Amino acid sequence: MAYVDDAEHEELHEPTSFYAKYVWSQDHKVIAIQYSLTAIAVGLVALVLSGMMRMQIGFPGSIDMDSTGYYQAMTMHGMIMVIYLLTALFLGGFGNYLIPLMVGARDMVFPFVNMLSYWFYLVSVLVLIASFFVPGGPTGAGWTLYPPQAITAGTPGSEWGIILMLVSLIIFIIAATMGGLNYVTTVLQARTHGMTMFRLPLTVWGIFVATILALLAFPALFVSGIMMLLDKTIGTSFFMPDMMQFGTQLDHTGGSPILFQHLFWFFGHPEVYIVALPAFGLVSDLISVHARRSIFGYRMMVWAIVAIGVLSFVVWAHHMYVSGMNPYFGFFFATTTLVIAVPTALKVYNWLLTLWRGNIHLTVPMLFSLAFIVTFLVGGLTGLFLGNVVVDIPLSDTYFVVAHFHMVMGVAPILVVFGAIYHWYPKITGRMLHDGIGKLHFWITFLGTYLIYFPMHYLGFLGMPRRYYAYEDYQFIPDSAQSLNAFITVVAIAVGVSQLLFLFNLIYSLFRGKPSGGNPWKANSLEWLTPDTPPKHGNWGESMPVVHRWAYDYGVPEAELDYVPQTTSGDEVPVHESDLDE
Amino acid sequence: MTFAVILVAIVILSVLFHFLSPWQATPLASNWGSIDTTITITLVITGIFFVAIVIFMAYCVYKYQVDPDRRSEYKPENKKLEWWLIGITTVAICGLLAPGLIVYNDFVHVPSNAVEFEAVGEQWRWSYRLPGTDEKFGRSSVSRMDEINTFGLDPDDAAGQDDILVAGNQMHLLVNQPTKVLLRSKDVLHDFYVPQFRAKMDLIPGQITYFWFTPTVPGTFEILCAEYCGIGHYNMRGQIVVDKASDYQQWLSEQITFAEVLTGGTVEGLVEQGQLLASSRGCLACHSIDGGPSLGPGWLDLFGSQESLIDGSEVFVDADYLIESIVDPAAKIVAGYPPVMVAYQFSNEQLDSLVAYIESLSTESSGSPTKPAVEE
Q1: Cys-Cys crosslink for A368: which of A156, A353, A419, B78, Cβ 3.0 to 4.6 Å?
Q2: Which residue in A547, A520, A517 sits closest to A532, CA to CA?
Q3: Host H or E run for residue B321
Q4: ipTM value of the model?
Q5: Vertex B90 angle, CA A287 and A384, to 5°
Q6: Which residues lie closer than 8 Å to B149 by C-beta, 6 or more apart?
Q7: d(CA A289, CA A528)
Q8: For the purposes of burial, counting CB atoms within 10 Å of the CB of B114, is it exposed (0-12), middle (13-18) or buried (19 or more)?
Q9: Measured between beta carbons, which residues in chain B are less than 8 angstroms from residue A470?
């Protein structure tokens, strides 16, 4: 623990000027807020785009949007939500804020690289947004960017939009790599006295493993992005076969479109867990704190995160069951995909068993956590349809898929994001978010998203294909499907607008919120034990915290209170960890 | 309490919705009833887990709601319980996977008595090929494709001479005949999807993919593209007509072979040349000729009519306007249609033939010397 000893003796170099403090900041807490605000801002763009799409689907022709605009909105919505909102928010936002505080470090180990990570991220967002203003507009290739259509005429934005998209992704990956190296190194090297790996809160475990996945998976997207950029700009044929488009032979030969799909999903499936694992970690901590009960089966939870992380690299081709790859691959990938359901199911059980015989406070963070379990359960179970190769064949490329992935990696992680913001906002600002507005926001969001996506599965059973601008004159689709789509649109618009409640709450509570004190939830983990709230530069003041126990000592029989902070020594309250080893 | 009640309500309403929903799978029209069975098995097993888990959660929220006088139990682990839960989950997973893989094994093994046909996709339409009497497809490649040889067959390959080429969007199949579909794309990814047949597969330019099914119900079924392929994706329609034996033979006898296409190679007459061009260069993918909906303005009765442009002005459709719209599509955009057409390059003769063809589709122009040329 050489790092901790140094951290106690070295001077802090606290910045003094406004710019050094809030703009070119190297403080992980400021960088976290920069990341989060940028992600939320760009996420709002994606939210508006989805509203426009829903208007066209629910009420065709009601807004002035042709198929070009529809496909551009679809593509940008998907890419922004997955990469620029969720990935950036979980790793750059929560990872940055919580890792140093939870492991007991003064900051990330490479603060300057950490700052660069944010600025690269911001540039990638600006390049992405710039594509709305280039000739031909942003790319409409679908967020999967499958060639050949992504870079040929017939797809919107195939002149400039796709180039900006690829450049933006490449910059984003550089940003994510700089951030990721920081998170991993900080977790491994900068833990404080007594903070063993098996005393880390599950939040840190989730973000830690997700970051390792990101470092291993993003390179696949990086190289495929560069290869496609070369295909587009200088006419190479990595992904471009001989083709005849609109009666004209193109100058490409011998490339393989399906190679791109393999590379994309070798990144793309771990990407699902890059979003999901931090959500698993955060929600575990929320449930334990607000149920006042030790997380059930901590070590199994850790190993489940690790197992899911490892398995996530051998399931990618379940996105490609009907892609035309060798059909015998289906046996292997169906098996690995369904195996991953076992550790995932274990996590759900353990969350429930944490509630069982707990003392449940239905606070806003807890409400969002419970809603997450329901939503994630539905999304996980529908994943068993799509992962099982032969069941996937009729359902792939239908609205069943849209409903599934929105449940499992759209709504579920976002519910955790909300819960986590309601939970940690007091630490970040020193004030509580408004409870009444929070509950209203919760009910509209939870019930609304369920009403949107649960019935949508049935449009998939019916066979309605996804990525359709319009469904006119298809005989197999009954008129009632249009009514359901109109209903879904109305609910979706309501849920979308209701997010203004959340934004209002964020701003209102910053000035008018009830002062929270340092540990409003009576939680154990280190971030609640900082000498100042919000924590100052360097986090811990003079001396570093000393950890004596895990973060989940709630309801310990010998203790006076129902919680025992990690810094409480074994002399005051017995440490039970040795019991666990039996 | 409220929260627990709402959780129970979610379970009850979800299950009710499942049984009362009018949105269920389309009536099956192929041999893949076994796929439907695997869906049912999956619904039952996942449904049990869904109900059990949410109800248990509701119970916990109700039973263990906050009580300041009580403390939660301190029992961080129960290895035995965890291993039991892992065991039960594993059994359930096997219950899903085993039937799934057994059916999938059927899906990847094409029966030996299956007949083959080829579906060719391009933005945004379908065409089809049958192997002919020798039951062998001739070699094909993109580099051989031109206005006449739209399938890109090798004229020197004897196996290709008797291949039957179906240029329209409609294909006929024989009922109860196991059928292997070979899939080929000229340009980008597509996916051959007939909801009533359940099975689907992508088309990939540069390689040939396949799947098989047995159509079991006579009738007409829609082919949809299920893999995103650009702005016209939602409108890439085709039809499968499943015939009884006599109807199928009748239809088959009306189709032309590759050899016949080659000998009829140079087409006489401006209108016929235009028709061939419109078909081979993909114009008809976006411009309907029967008054049906399409991505671009339909050609039926277009010539000689007035079109409203997006700037509010009107234009009279004559040869000059048509030629301008082909070589510079952005110059005048007709209201109600997206500005998505790419500029095409044609020789002057080709442009004249296209205009003649479009003119021939107008009843208004019956006074003109060119007559409709759709007769066989």
Answers
A1: A419
A2: A517
A3: helix B319-327
A4: 0.93
A5: 75
A6: B155, B261, B262
A7: 12
A8: middle
A9: 234-235
**pLDDT tens digit string along B57-66?**
999 999 999 9
Query: Do A420 and A561 lie in a common domain?
Result: no
Query: Measured between alpha carbons, how far is A348 from A301 in angstroms, rounded to an integer?
Result: 10
Please choose, from the candidates A90, A122, A110, the residue with its C-alpha nearest in 3D space to the C-alpha of residue A28: A110
Shortest distance, CA A520 to any CA of chain B (angstroms): 16
- Which CATH superfamily, name and number, covers B115-261? Cupredoxins -  blue copper proteins (2.60.40.420)
Contacts of B53 in chain A (CB under 8 A): 348, 352, 373, 377
Number of separate domains in chain A: 2
Minimum-distance CB partner of A342 among B57, B93, B142: B93
Range of A550's domain? 517-582
Q: Which of A72, A17, A19, A67 is nearest to A48 (CA)?
A: A72
Tell me how far apart the alpha carbons of residues A79 and A46 are, in angstroms, rounded to a whole number.
Answer: 9
* pLDDT score for B366: 46
Question: Around B45, how many Cα atoms within 13 Å sit in the side-chain half-sphere?
Answer: 23
Task: Determine, for residues B50 and A242 on separate chains, whether the beta-carbon distance falls below 8 Å.
Answer: no
Q: Where are the domains of chain B?
A: 2-67+75-108, 115-261, 267-367
pTM over 0.80: yes
User: Is residue B262 packed enough to be buried (19+ CB in 10 Å), middle (13-18) or exposed (0-12)?
Assistant: middle
- A371 belongs to a structural domain: yes
Residue of A nearest to B146 (CA): A247
Q: Tokens in use for B140?
A: 């094909």
pLDDT tens digits, A250-263: 999 999 999 999 99
> What span, in angstroms and rounded, lies between the C-alpha atoms of A289 and A555?
11
Shortest alpha-carbon distance between residue B145 and chain A (Å): 8
Q: Nearest to residue B177, comparing CAs of B121, B248, B118? A: B248
Of B61, B198, B207, the CB nearest to A393: B198
Rounded Cα–Cα distance for residues A51 and A73 (Å) = 10
- Residue B364 is predicted with a pLDDT of 57
